[in-house]
Amino acid sequence: MYLRPRTLRDAVEALAAPEVGILAGGTDFYPALGERRVSGTVLDLTAIPELRGIETGPERIRIGAATTWTEVIRAPLPRAVDALKAAAREVGSVQIQNRATVAGNLCNASPAADGVPPLLALDAEVELLSARGERRVPLASFITGNRKTVREAGEIVTAILLPRTIEGPSAFLKLGARRYLVISIAMVAAILEADPSGSGRVVQARIAVGSCSPVAKRLTQLEGELVGAKLDAVGARVEPRHLDMLSPIDDLRGTAAYRRDAARTLVARALQAAASGFQP
Question: What is the CATH number for 222?
Fold first, then answer.
């Protein structure tokens, strides 16, 4: 059965039935089937206007769950979101970016999901709706492992919320075996906020690393140690100990040791790139 509701209420009611699969962009839904046919009920969310669009307010930014990566790229957003825009440009091809949704990238919960590190650095929250009501979950708690989230049966992700708790330039860097259409070996998002007095020192830093653990990780120790550092020296402050919480694996794309070393280099470069955003 194929359902295409036009309101969130109708979608939530439909999702209460057993064996209902959610379809949004479809860029993960169909490839996951392989040669199998679609079974059960397919709930297509693409006709629900409440799930689309980006709203920017003084306290937060709200990204509708079915907003595409192309829409993220084109939206006028603060510099702290530039890392997310850069990640959006790495989500497959332009054709994929035109279809794939922000929430789909999170619900797929791949360790190599490009959107997760920049959203994690932005302290993103995931908004969910079900017949039981609405709840919000920090992104850091939403993804629990490879292809695992805390989304419960009957729940729809309705939005990603970005609290405006940091203002400053950001950067996203990704390492792969080739330049385009690649699954990352390691990736990093960084955001820096500087002292408004013009001292050239960091007052707040956010750094997240993906593809080096089952779930992307914030480098909170390094974030804390960067407070007070000169902007032109942030890259040099990165040490191997700052990446101790990562648990990279050996696979066809690279060894664990290579991933850890690459992540350290990417962190330093991403911080330098973000710091360069303060230059006149």
Answer: 3.30.390.50
Residue 63 maps to a domain? no
pTM of the model: 0.95
What is the domain-level CATH number for residue 39? 3.30.43.10
Give the residue among 221, 53, 66, 80 at the shortest CA–CA distance from 162. Answer: 80
Residue 137, C-beta contacts closer than 8 angstroms, at least 6 positions apart: 125, 126, 128, 150
> How many structural domains are present in the chain?
2
The per-residue pLDDT for range 62-81, each reduced to its tens digit, is 999 999 999 999 999 999 99
Domain membership of residue 22 (yes or no) is yes
In a domain, 190, yes or no: yes
The residue written with tokens 């914030």 in the block is: 218
Pairing of strands 156-163, 60-64: antiparallel
Which parts of the chain are beta strand (E)? 2-3, 20-23, 41-44, 54-56, 60-64, 125-130, 133-138, 143-145, 148-149, 156-163, 170-175, 186-194, 202-210, 217-218
**Which tens digit of pLDDT belongs to each residue from 90-149?**
998 999 999 999 999 999 999 999 999 999 999 999 999 999 999 999 999 999 999 999
Q: Quick check: 58 and 164 in contact, CB under 8 A? A: yes
Distance CA 253, CA 184 (A): 8
Domain interval for residue 13: 1-45
Q: How many angstroms separate the CA atoms of 57 and 48, rounded?
A: 22
| pLDDT classification of 280: cutoffs 50, 70, 90 | low
Instruction: Tell whether 124 is covered by a domain.
Output: no
Structure tokens at 136: 């919000």
171: left (phi over 0), alpha (psi -120 to 50) or beta: beta
Partnered with residue 62 across adjacent β-strands are 55, 161
C-alpha 200/C-alpha 271 separation (Å) is 14
